[in-house]
Amino acid sequence: MTEQMIYICSDAVGETAEAVVKATLRQFSSENVKIKRFGHLRSEDEISRIVADAAKNGGFISYTLVQPELRALMKEESMKHGVTAVDVMGPMMQAFVDTFGSFPKREPGLLHSIDEAYHKRMEAIEFAVKYDDGKDVRGLLQAQVILIGVSRTSKTPVSVYLSHKGIKTANLPLMPEVNPPAELKCGPGRLIVGLTMKPEHLLQIRTERLKALGLPASAQYASADRIQEELDYASSIMKSLNCPVIDVTNRAIEETAGIISEWLNQ
Q: Is 23 helix (H, G, I), strand (E, B) or coil?
């Protein structure tokens, strides 16, 4: 089947137009659709080249261009080449002008302005990736939140979810054979949270995990005795730290993260 092309064009990053395109694609069988994004467009030559390429490949264009001269050129070039070009923000801005009599600032990227909150969120996301799964215990001293628990208790997805809220989160797996690092027990101003799960539910998750990896379901990792041993050990560590514990059995990631966020704010 011939590959179909959708071109994203923006004088900013292009995330808005791409989000609209992806939302649209979910309504179609779009396995053979490829998206090409062109951001920070500034010149008329760039617009002309992209439209010509879209015409050549039989694709269409979704664009967010706030500079009036670039928007005008995009309309002109797309009409000349017979290319469909969808102005994502233009009608909305015109509606604002017509209704409220105000005029846009015409500054590319205002929707995704790099402010303090943005930097904080990016730092937190990088932090969560760097200090995931106890890869570097130094992160335990810098984290705002530390998640501890046995394998497959949602530590990583909760860490990532919290990081998107700008919260620096590290997580550490607990295993009977490995003593917790000293960094876990020292360091002020951190919230340590234990994540646990009903053993039968954890058994089911680990069994499915082994199947996905092509490993035998009889492995010790997914044995009822081993799981109970790990949970008992983790519980003893959590009690020694006197940290709050959340049972994540059948609990959504965002719900767990919401509880932790509330505790952090308190």
A: helix
Rounded CA-CA distance 123/92 in Å is: 33
**Closest among 23, 106, 35, 115 to 69, alpha carbons compared:** 106
Rounded average pLDDT over 35-63: 95
Residue 1: pLDDT band with limits 50, 70, 90: low
Per DSSP, the residues of 89-136 read SHHHHHHHHHHH-------TTGGG---HHHHHHHHHHHHHHHTGGGS-
pLDDT of residue 113 exceeding 80, the answer is no
Helix, strand, or coil here: 242? coil
CA-nearest of 122, 145, 100 to 244 is: 145
Given a contact cutoff of 8 angstroms between Cβ atoms, the answer to whether 144 and 114 are in contact is no
Supply the pTM of this predicted model.
Answer: 0.60
Asked if pLDDT for residue 107 goes beyond 70, the answer is: no
Burial class (CB in 10 A: 0-12, 13-18, 19+), 197: buried
DSSP category for residue 169: E
| Pairwise CA distance, residues 135 & 137, whole Å | 6
Looking at residue 240, its pLDDT comes to 96
